[in-house]
Amino acid sequence: MSAEPRFDELIHAPTRLSIVSLLAATEWADFKYLRDSVGLSDSALSKQLTTLEEAGYVDIRKSFVGKRPRTSVKLSPQGQRAFAAHVAALQEIVARSGMTLTQ
After folding, report:
1. Closest Cα partner for 10 from 20, 1, 2, 25?
2. Residue 44, Cβ neighbours under 10 Å: how many?
3. Where are the alpha helices (DSSP H) in 13-76?
4. Which of 7, 52, 91, 99 is least buried, going by the fewest C-beta atoms within 10 A?
5. Which of 3.40.50.300, 1.10.760.10, 1.10.10.10, 1.10.3470.10 is the CATH number of 9-96?
6. pLDDT tens digits, one per residue of 45-98
């Protein structure tokens, strides 16, 4: 079943699109992995994750490993649907140009 195309301004911002794309490929991602993969500072990533969390697109889990705090993030079911719809909308836009996107 494919998603109904819907362009999502919140996801479309380049940094958030990168974050959501990474999260779509995994169940839970470590904060440090996201930070390093996207190339953001801790505070910039925290801000983006807060925006996504407030929209209901990500779930954030805070725990401790020994005495060290660990933050993990996953795409929520709502975030998965929004990302799939956004990708479908992008595919529609590209299809109109005669080009194709591969998954």
Report:
1. 20
2. 13
3. 14-24, 31-38, 42-54
4. 99
5. 1.10.10.10
6. 999 999 999 999 999 999 998 999 999 999 999 999 999 999 999 999 888 887
